[in-house]
Amino acid sequence: MKVIKIGGHLLMNEEGSFRINYIHDLLNVLKRISRETGHKIVVVVGGGYTARKYIGAARKSNVNESILDTLGIMVSRLNASLLYSIYYNKAPIIPKSLEELAYLLSTNLDVIFMGGLQPGQSTTTVAALVAESTNSDLIITTNVDGIYTTDPKKDPKAKLLKRVNVSLLKKIFDKEELAGEYRMLDPLSIKIISRSKISTHIINGENPQNILDLVIEGKDIGTLIVFE
Q: pLDDT tens-digit profile of 5-33?
């Protein structure tokens, strides 16, 4: 089984318009992977720009971080519902706990879509928990080609790390996180990946073909997390 984290920001632009062609391409890739591997796929979807807008509006009114997290979770589940509805053309069934996910994995659904679970967790952490609980590989998609030595959007000399040790990741991403912040990884997700040595790739999800190239073609793309 594969667990794939899809950043909500990949589904829409900053103005809030959905990238329909992208969504269709992504779902076609998921369908092909399921068909050719015979494995189930769990897709964990983030809240993206819409979640940030809701959280930003609530934060201006001094709403606490737990409630802000809850708003983000609701948006992420709505994004997951959209993908489910288009993929199956049926009313969405979105698991809200690992127990509900376990039940859905026992059904004939080939792809399961879900969002956040509880306050204090990013959807990346949720994806890591799902991979851990199901003994699955994890693929994290983002809008850059993997993990770099520095921010590639700010530093033209940034170099892509094809392999990165989990201990280095802890130093890179060891920062306090607020609700609505987008990070490729966060301390809790790294801890889960580390403790269970989850096979984890970080790849550019702007082109869904990259997911296909990694899973079906076995191409060496993105960054692979390695362990001591």
A: 999 999 998 888 999 999 999 999 999 99
**At which residue do the structure tokens 């793309």 appear?**
221
Tokens of 4: 């794939």
**178-223: pLDDT as tens digits:** 454 446 788 899 999 999 999 999 999 999 999 999 999 999 999 9
CA distances from 134 to 37, 99, 148 (A): 17, 11, 29
Strands 223-226, 200-204: pairing is: antiparallel
Name the β-bridge partners of 2: 41, 137
Distance CA 100, CA 93 (A): 10
pLDDT at 175 over 70: no
For residue 212, the surrounding DSSP H or E stretch is: helix 209-215
Radius of gyration of the chain (CA): 17
Residue ranges and CATH numbers for the domains of the chain are 2-226 (3.40.1160.10)
3-state secondary structure 13-49: CCCCCECHHHHHHHHHHHHHHHHHHCCCEEEEECCHH
